[in-house]
Structure formats: C-alpha cells, structure tokens
Design a protein that fits this description.
This protein is an alpha/beta fold. The chain has 10 helices and 7 strands. The chain has 2 domains: about 10-190 and about 255-285, 3-Layer(aba) Sandwich (Rossmann fold); about 190-245, no CATH class. Helices cover about 50% and strands about 15% of the residues. The protein has a 7-stranded parallel β-sheet with strand order 3-2-1-4-5-6-7, sandwiched between helices. NADP nicotinamide-adenine-dinucleotide phosphate binds near residues 65, 92 and 188. NADP nicotinamide-adenine-dinucleotide phosphate binds near residues 19, 20, 114 and 143.
C-alpha cells in the first residue's frame, strides 16, 4: 500500500528512544522528512543519523516540553528544519508507579504538566500553519491505562485519559480544517525500559540466559500460570505483583512489539486515513476489555 507520505514533514516528540524512535524511523522509511526530538542530544542525534544513513531526511530539535520556553524552541526548530510540519506525533511521555497508600500531589501535578500540557504546548505552536495549508495530522500516543484504570500507575493513567479527552475535543475544534486528531493507545510494548524491568524480574526469579529465553519464561509464567508471579510464593513485592496482573495480561498472550504500534501510526499519519478523526485506537493484544 502506498501511504502517500513522500514529501510530508513530521515531528515525533520523544523520538530519542523507545516507541518514538521506531515511529521516526518508520515515517522516514515511508518517505517523510522527520524531526527527531528529545532532551538527550546524543540519543536524538543517533536516531537522526540512522535516518539520514538510510537515505531519508532528518533534523534534530532538543528541549524539555514541560516548559513553555523550551517547547516553543522545539516547535520553531522543527518548523525551520523543513519549512513546515504536516504531521505531529505527540509521543513524549513519562510515568511512575504509584500506590494509594502514599499519593504525592506534587508528582501528580508534574506528570500532568509533562504528559498533557506538553501536548498543548506543541499543538499551540504547530497547528496554525497546518490549518493554513488545509491538511495536517495530530497523533497522540495514549495508553491502555487511559480506558482500563489500574490501582498502580494512577497518576499516569489519568494523564492518558486526559489525552484521549483532549484529542476528541481537538477533532471537534478542528472541524472542516483538513487537520485530524487521533489517539493511539498501546498496551505493554517491548521498549528498552520494559525489557530492563522484565530482566530485573528475571533476576529476582533466578532466571538466566539469553533474552529470548527470559522473555519466553516471562510470558509463559504470566499467561499460562499467572499465579506463580502474583501468588503467595511470588518473589515480587505487592506493587510489582499488582502491576503484572493489571498491565500485562491480555488475550493475545504476549507483549507487543514497537513495530506493531508503528504500523498503525504511519497509517493514521497518511492521507489514506483522512476519514479517521477523533478516534482512540487500541494496539494492546486485547488488554483493554471495552467494546471500542
Ligand atoms: N512502552 C510501553 O509499554 C508503553 C505502553 C503504553 C504507552 N506508552 C507511551 O508511549 C510513549 C513512549 O513510551 P516509551 O516506552 O517509548 O518511552 P521511553 O523509551 O521512556 O521514551 C520516552 C521519550 O520521551 C521523551 N520525553 C519524556 N519526557 C519528556 C519531556 N518532558 N520533554 C521532552 N522529551 C521528553 C524522552 O526523551 P529524552 O529521554 O531524550 O529526554 C524519550 O525520547 C509514552 O507516551 C508512553 O506513555 C508506552
């Protein structure tokens, strides 16, 4: 399928690692010019170099989206790189695992600023030029935890619920402009951070060997015998047991891969998705048990 992304210009926030990195690489592979963003210069430059080495165009915009000033700088740098931005993937995000035994209002506020207000900052700067051209894409990366709240990750889940809400409002606000707004909500995806966490669990369980074997045992014990991880013999603490039970169980029986999120993002970013607007689309192996 030709996604007609040749010549489009994209900014992928938080593309210095993880899912964002894979989205940036995939959009570039489809012919888009991509602005790679993060706070860590070495990592953002590494990703941009991988894109240019593949023969596509890339630029780097650095800055903390949690402040107006740096977000403004990121937006200006991105627009200057290729003379405008047609596609924004608001992927940058942070999380922490919290417990209701010790809720921390300052951390909640900080996370809301990082995960939600950051998106508003980026949109504020990049939307006017999209509207002027009569075409644009605003794609927010949400999470299954937005629709299936868990006892752990409460602050994070609330920020992702806000993202879904914001996106629907945005789609309505952008009626008949040619600019669409959608959320893509992944379940657990095997990024370096998630891999490190699983390796930590593997260490506690005394599993050794290659990553493929660790993942095989992790998945087998999760999905075939969840009790061994969350039950009374578990070597995990209560918060980790909750997290495993609430976040990882899904009918497909495995952890997702970044490519599986990325394929959907590239499609939604393309002109082929002109009629998909205001949606929240799950890529989670069926983890969120809703009718939509
Ligand atoms: N991995 C999963 O299983 C999963 C599941 C559901 C949803 N998600 C969502 O997918 C997105 C990407 O997650 P990931 O797992 O790929 O995360 P990751 O590997 O930790 O990457 C996060 C990215 O966001 C950037 N970032 C974070 N806060 C920022 C800020 N204040 N200003 C600028 N950049 C910031 C980081 O840049 P620097 O490090 O360079 O600063 C990094 O590039 C997030 O929105 C996350 O909530 C992930």
């Amino acid at each position: 399928m030709d996604l007609q992304l040749e010549g489009k210009r994209a900014l992928v926030t938080g593309s210095s690692s993880g899912i964002g990195e894979a989205i940036a690489m995939a959009l570039a592979k489809e012919g888009a010019s991509v602005v790679v963003h993060g706070r860590r210069e070495d990592e953002a430059v590494r990703v941009a170099k991988a894109i240019t080495d593949s023969g596509a165009s890339a630029a780097v915009a650095l800055g903390d989206l949690a402040t107006d000033e740096e977000a403004g700088h990121v937006a200006k740098t991105a627009m200057a790189a290729f003379g405008g931005i047609d596609i924004v993937v608001n992927n940058a995000g942070a999380y922490f695992r919290d417990e209701w035994t010790d809720p921390n209002p300052a951390r909640w506020l900080d996370l809301y600023n990082q995960n939600v207000v950051s998106v508003v900052r980026v949109i504020r700067h990049l939307l006017p030029q999209m509207k002027q051209r009569g075409w644009g894409r605003l794609i927010q990366i949400g999470s299954g935890l937005a629709s299936a709240p868990a006892a752990t990750f409460a602050a994070y889940g609330c920020t992702k619920s806000a993202i879904v809400n914001l996106t629907v409002s945005l789609a309505k606000g952008l009626a008949r402009t040619g600019v669409t707004a959608n959320t893509i909500s992944p379940g657990p995806v095997l990024t370096p951070n998630i891999e490190a966490w699983i390796k930590d669990i593997a260490g506690k369980k005394g599993w050794h060997g290659e990553w493929a074997e660790v993942e095989r045992r992790f998945v087998a014990e999760f999905f075939a015998n969840l009790e061994s991880i969350i039950g009374p013999q578990s070597v995990l603490d209560l918060a980790e047991r909750r997290c495993v039970a609430e976040f990882f169980e899904n009918p497909t029986g495995r952890i997702g891969r970044v490519e599986e999120v990325v394929d959907l993002v590239t499609f939604i970013a393309s002109p082929r998705a002109n009629y998909i607007n205001g949606a929240n689309i799950r890529v989670d192996g069926g983890y969120v048990p809703t009718t939509n």
